[in-house]
From TrEMBL:
It comes from the Bacteria. Residues 185-194 have a biased composition (Basic and acidic residues). The keyword 4Fe-4S does not apply. GO terms for molecular function: O-acyltransferase activity. Belongs to the transferase hexapeptide repeat family. PANTHER family: ACETYLTRANSFERASE C18B11.09C-RELATED, SIALIC ACID SYNTHASE-RELATED. The keyword NAD does not apply. Keywords: Acyltransferase, Transferase. Its EC number is 2.3.1.-. This is Acyltransferase. Pfam families: Hexapep.
Length: 208
């Protein structure tokens, strides 16, 4: 049933690692992959060549994401990777074009991907090999990132392009807005006798 060759022996530990990790919670899974203790990795995440993945503190990886670190992958602190996002650091395109897509082909190309600190990568995003995403960048869901993304920008689309640039003053105004709204909602929840002890805003209808 199982092959007894070099490739099978090389892949088997990765397969077993992924299987065992499905029975862990998100914090346990992150530490199982050797990531910082403050990181969270959700269910069904696939990490290719985890030894080549460098991840900062307080990162979050959503369900079903596939992180290809075979060509080198660096993710800065406080960055979130959305669910079902795909990050590629290698390509077999030339091997396909020349009918040389066999195991061990010397036409596999690898280029590292670097994602900065404080980034928000939405769900269902595709990031191509060789891309650098600057600090505090936002990638909207369903985008395909084929070129570098400048710091403090919002990009979207296929191919992704810049739609907005923001500075620290804009971010601080948004922080103030959200904290004030969350405080208003918690106060209303307490008046209604609801539990407002959780993090962020309590759920429910708080329109006046």
């Amino acid at each position: 049933m199982f092959f007894d060759d070099e490739r099978s022996h090389r892949l088997r530990p990765q397969i077993l690692t992924e299987l065992v990790s499905q029975y862990m919670n998100d914090a346990e899974r992150a530490q199982f992959y050797g990531l910082p203790s403050t990181c969270r990795v959700r269910e069904r995440v696939k990490i290719i060549s985890p030894e080549n993945l460098k991840m900062g503190d307080h990162c979050w990886v959503g369900e079903g994401a596939a992180l290809d670190a075979s060509g080198g992958l660096e993710i800065g602190e406080h960055t979130s990777i959305g669910l079902n996002t795909l990050i590629f650091t290698h390509s077999s395109w030339l091997a396909n074009m020349t009918l040389q897509n066999h195991s061990g082909s010397d036409l596999i190309e690898r280029k590292p991907v670097k994602i900065g600190k404080g980034c928000f990568i939405g769900g269902l995003v595709v990031i191509m090999a060789g891309v650098t995403i600057g600090d505090f960048a936002t990638v909207q869901p369903n985008s395909v990132v084929a070129k570098d993304v400048p710091p403090r920008t919002l990009v979207a689309g296929n191919p992704a392009r810049v739609f907005q640039r923001y500075d620290e003053e804009y971010i601080q105004s948004e922080v103030d807005r959200v904290r004030a709204e969350n405080a208003r909602r918690r106060a209303l929840a307490e008046e209604r006798g609801a539990d407002a002890s959780g993090w962020g805003a309590p759920s429910g209808d708080f329109s006046e």
